[in-house]
Design goal:
Layout (H helix, E strand, L loop, with lengths): L15 E12 L2 E7 L11 E6 L3 E6 L10 E6 L3 H6 L7 E8 L12 E7 L3 H13 L7 E7 L8 H9 L4 E6 L9 E2 L16 E6 L2 H13 L7 E4 L15 E2 L2 E2 H4 L2 E3 H8 L5
Parallel strand pairs: 7-8, 7-11, 8-9, 9-10, 11-12
Antiparallel strand pairs: 1-2, 1-6, 2-5, 3-4, 3-6, 12-15, 13-14
Amino acid sequence: MAHIPDPHLSDPMVPVLARVTNRVEEIPGVVTFEINAPQWQGFAPGQFNMLSLFGVGEIPISISGPSFDSTTIIHTIRDVGAVSGAMATLEPGAMLGMRGPYGTAWPVEQARGRDVVVVAGGLGLAPVRPILYHLITNRANFGRVTLLYGARSPDEILFRNELSKWRAQLDMSVEVTVDHADATWRGHVGVVTTLFKGADFDPAKTTAFVCGPEIMMRFGANALTDAGVAPEDIHLSMERNMQCAIGLCGHCQIGPFFVCKDGPVFNWAQMKPLMAIKEL
């Protein structure tokens, strides 16, 4: 089982200062930062940090870098609001506040010896990227590995260089689809679940990791169970609005769960009855 570091602050509501050391614009409106913070003890794939800009606000962001690198913290941020928009403009040398890491981890070690299917939609590729780093680094410990990734359009595909590199290594299957093609696109067109028919995995021996918009995760998890994967072997990241990260404010509650403490990673057996309730 992966080691899950505890938040390193004596007061979990007080951020430490972190410095941006590198910035990459992935696609318009989406930026990946490398940051450095004192006392950082690493993280487990699936965990998140609370990032803040003083005078602007604070938001939860999943960690999108490799968990075996204990010195660099990597976050991928989409400009969708006041806080994320301000963060997207930061350049190397800028300072921000950080609390964490928080939350549960993807149970990657439970997948040892099994086939692994990773399903991601849109920005959901960022929170599952640490899983892919782990699988690639420890490739001999797993069976067939499949990544199924969907984006709305070709110009919204994240991490293109890595996708090409992973596909070229020939030890994992990488399939990409878009909802809407343009004149330059020669790949698959359709929602990500349309890629399932061509995926090669043994449902009885498969562990699946799913991240993306909630409607995509619901259809993806149902498609996996229809293929024969057990609900307990399908894991989702429920990245809802969080403001305290320690289970006090209730903003991230879904049914009986507080996503910041009980999640963000849950299995489909836990989430299926809750995600069937409209407006929950």
